Amino acid sequence: MITRTITVLATTALAATALSAGTATAMPTDFHCTAGDLDTNLVYGGAGAGQRYAAVQFTAKPGVTCTLPGSLPLDLVGAHDVLIDNQARDDAPNVRVSEGSPAYIPLHWSAIDEQQQTPLALTFTAPQEYNPRGDYSDPHVTLPWTFGGVDAAPENHTIDAGAVTPGVAPVG
């Protein structure tokens, strides 16, 4: 009877040690992305009949799995008469990116009016400052604007920004 009790206790202790060791090394996979978790770029999407398309493209770095909120407000630097219309609903679904998988925010504007302004950059704030390891990443992201002028006349002076969408941004 004593031998069985010792064997059961030893087996239980080994199982608990293995379980806690596995838990200690596992990284959470459901956390909001930091700016450092992603490669982020503005990508050209096409043009036609005065309409322009682009996207903010996010790609998860190797070894990273994280979540972007469906609604990620954007801002402009420069072009004081041009506005961003963040059209994503506040309850837009989150988008998970992992190990090189992409997501994007579609952008649309017009460039037909003679009164145009060229933004210097597009900015946003990443949803998280610290990753699960406790590493800090500056949440403020600035992407240089490389797509030329945007209509700045009072009747048409907006860049429409959609919800975060899984996949590669369309190129037209």
Automatic annotation (TrEMBL):
Keyword flag Signal: yes
Listed InterPro entries: DUF4232
UniProt domain DUF4232: residue ranges: 33-127
Signal sequence bounds: 1-26
Keyword line: Signal
Protein's name in the database: DUF4232 domain-containing protein
Organism, as annotated: Amycolatopsis xylanica
